[in-house]
Amino acid sequence: CADIAERGGAAVDIETAGAVPAVPSEIRRAITDIAIAVLTTVSSRARITVTAADEGIVVSLVADSPADPPSLHYDRVMLEHQRDGENLWVEVRWNGQ
After folding, report:
1. pLDDT at position 41, please?
2. In this predicted structure, what is the pLDDT of residue 78?
3. Which helix (H) or strand (E) holds 66?
4. What are φ and ψ of residue 36, in 5° steps?
5. Which residues of the chain have pLDDT under 50?
6. pLDDT score, position 80
7. What is the three-class DSSP state of 5?
8. In degrees, to the nearest 5, what angle opens at C-alpha 43 toward C-alphas 28 and 53?
């Protein structure tokens, strides 16, 4: 999803940690939909972190984006977000079970 922001001229930093487990397609789609919604509105910079955690994953985004993430409708996927001025922090967590 990072190329969406990069094509708009934003600098994007991507970090990964750990071996990411197999993620069911519907969960993967839910996570990427949130990332796409944020990354399409980035002004100049974004950082994406994907971390393997307890047989699941945590995807965090920090961006100068005016948009709030869309709502999420999956029981096993948790979404948190906070705003500090123009900066938006989003975390999506899937526990893998």
Report:
1. 92
2. 92
3. none
4. -60, -45
5. none
6. 95
7. helix
8. 30
Q: What is the pLDDT of residues 45-65, one digit of tens each?
A: 999 999 997 789 999 999 999
Other CB atoms within a 10 A radius of the CB of residue 8 amount to: 14
Give the length of the chain: 97
Are 72 and 92 contacting, i.e. CB atoms less than 8 angstroms apart?
yes
- The answer to whether 32 touches 1, Cβ cutoff 8 Å, is yes
Pull the structure tokens for residue 13. 């930093």
CA distance 51 to 72: 20
3-state secondary structure of 52: strand
Q: How far apart are CA 41 and CA 43, in angstroms?
A: 6
pLDDT of residue 67: 86
Can you list the alpha helix ranges (DSSP code H) found in the chain? 2-7, 25-39
